[in-house]
Design a protein that fits this description.
GO molecular function: galactosylceramide sulfotransferase activity
Membrane topology: Single-pass type II membrane protein
Order of helices and strands: EEHEHEEEEHEHHHEEHEHHHHEEHH
Main location: Golgi
Radius of gyration: 22 Å
Oligomer: single chain
Distance between the termini: 58 Å
Largest sheet: 5 strands, parallel
Subcellular location: Golgi apparatus membrane
Number of helices: 13
Family: Belongs to the galactose-3-O-sulfotransferase family.
Strand order of the largest sheet: 4-6-3-8-11
Bound molecules: 2-acetamido-2-deoxy-beta-D-glucopyranose
Number of strands: 13
Length: 400
């Protein structure tokens, strides 16, 4: 490698020229339509470069653009995508992805499909879509459409298309099945796991939570079971999933995955910043030996197929980007540290922080407002968004 390693320049509390911009538009079948009416929805600054860029959702265009490695700059043909159907799988880093999508929707004033469960238990979960009707999600003012689905649900391609009607980008995330199994077990058993720290005892298979854990992500993707018997052909099932989704993020390569997402959606670096969410603190004291790992792996067959296929696909895409991509990942991790430092510590002292321009991004600011949403837990954020969506609906239900 001839290139020298990138040095992250830490700049805090510098005076910046800060452009506040308010953008008002909502999704429609034509992509986006201008609408100067509703102003009660969240207003935030959005990066100036997003302005005036036409949406081009053609598949060819996506492919043509996979090599663009910088934020959108004048002259580069690249159009930001706004319509996204995200399958939020359990225990796989998906809450962090949802947070990214909620914030993207807020900044760009897009319509989120939210469960019609204001103030009810599990109000942030859409869940099973077998009996989905229009009344399952919060309504929008007449003539508007949903742009983004990011709440938890069980995958059904037809329903996803119905919710996000305008050529959605299908996105999901998978996690290494053994890790995910353990994470699921600890989350659901609230740390009461027999035989700590070696949790995999002979009796474990009889436990309901372990049985569910073994079915794993395949349940989120819509695999059908009778007891532990598969009712769909697993190969066809996995084949369908990997062709349905435009991108399957891999939790073990989270930052790499997000940078690929940024390229494919023609987003900016600011659009993919995050602070990790929903990390399982109870999982600290566990151990598996090689035999335990094999036992668990033997149980999670469908997940293994799904995972290895998704991972191979992702790594191939990364490989095509070449060794320079490592520099970009390194830079991104540095940016994430700056964001976290500011949101956790700096926010008490400065009203914003500036992320400097680089080979891969334009300069941008992170404000207290950004941090509020970056740090907000999902139930609170979805609850907030539900109230706002409801208010907009009641105020503008007739379309003006
Ligand atoms: C960002 O911080 C600078 C310096 O503290 C300040 O002058 C500027 O008004 C801030 N911008 C916003 C949007 O808060
Ligand atoms: C979208 O991009 C594709 C491929 O680059 C191009 O053929 C098509 O004309 C574009 N459509 C619009 C509306 O710009
Ligand atoms: C991506 O960029 C690299 C380096 O600029 C180039 O060698 C490669 O051919 C490009 N790939 C595609 C698919 O355009
Ligand atoms: C869907 O509706 C049918 C008929 O009312 C009911 O039997 C079934 O349990 C429902 N499925 C789910 C997942 O709620
Ligand atoms: C599930 O399995 C049981 C026992 O093998 C069988 O009796 C039942 O008909 C099966 N149900 C379905 C929906 O396939
Ligand atoms: C795969 O997709 C095809 C076409 O949509 C469908 O007919 C088939 O039932 C699916 N198979 C599985 C196992 O999901
Ligand atoms: C895992 O499955 C393989 C093949 O079915 C079997 O040979 C092996 O003994 C199993 N391992 C464990 C630890 O159960």
């Amino acid at each position: 490698m001839t290139r020298t390693l990138m040095v992250i320049v830490v700049i805090t509390s510098l005076l910046v020229i800060y452009v506040m911009e308010f953008k008002v538009y909502h999704g429609s079948n034509e992509g986006r339509k201008s609408n100067s009416g509703p102003t009660s929805f969240i207003s935030e600054q959005i990066p100036t470069k997003a302005n005036g860029i036409q949406q081009n959702t053609s598949k060819d265009n996506l492919v043509a653009n996979t090599n663009i490695s910088k934020d959108q700059v004048p002259g580069i043909k690249c159009s930001k995508r706004f319509n996204i159907a995200f399958l939020k799988t359990h225990k796989s880093g998906s809450t962090t992805v949802s947070n990214i999508l909620y914030r993207f929707a807020i900044r760009n004033r897009l319509n989120l499909a939210l469960p019609n469960k204001r103030g009810k238990p599990n109000h942030w979960v859409l869940g099973d879509l077998t009996n989905f009707t229009d009344a399952s999600i919060l309504r929008l003012p007449t003539g508007e459409h949903y742009n983004i689905l990011a709440v938890e649900s069980i995958y059904r391609r037809d329903v996803f298309r119905r919710i996000v009607p305008s050529n959605p980008y299908f996105l999901t995330i998978v996690r290494e099945p053994v890790d995910r199994f353990i994470s699921y077990v600890f989350f659901n058993k609230k740390n009461n796991v027999e035989g700590m720290p070696y949790v995999i005892k002979n009796s474990f298979l009889k436990d309901k939570v372990f049985k569910m854990a073994a079915k794993g992500m395949s349940l989120d993707f819509g695999m059908k079971y009778n007891g532990s018997k598969l009712l769909l052909d697993p190969r066809r099932f996995v084949q369908n999933i990997t062709t349905d989704f435009d991108l399957i993020l891999v939790a073990e390569y989270f930052d790499e995955s997000l940078l690929l997402l940024k390229r494919q959606l023609c987003w900016e670096l600011k659009d993919i910043i995050y602070i990790s969410k929903n990390v399982n603190a109870q999982k600290r004291n566990y151990a598996l030996d090689a035999h335990d790992v094999e036992r668990v792996r033997n149980l999670t067959q469908v997940d293994n197929m799904l995972y290895s296929k998704s991972k191979t696909k992702l790594l191939k895409q990364i490989w095509k980007l070449g060794i320079e991509f490592l520099d970009e990942v390194f830079h991104f991790k540095g940016v994430l540290k700056l964001v976290k430092n500011y949101c956790v510590h700096g926010m008490k002292h400065f009203s914003n922080t500036t992320i400097p321009e680089s080979e891969w991004n334009q300069r941008f600011s992170v404000t207290e407002g950004d941090c509020r949403y970056l740090l907000m837990d999902e139930p609170t954020l979805v609850g907030n968004l539900q109230e706002r969506t409801w208010l907009r609906y009641t105020k503008f239900r007739d379309g003006f």
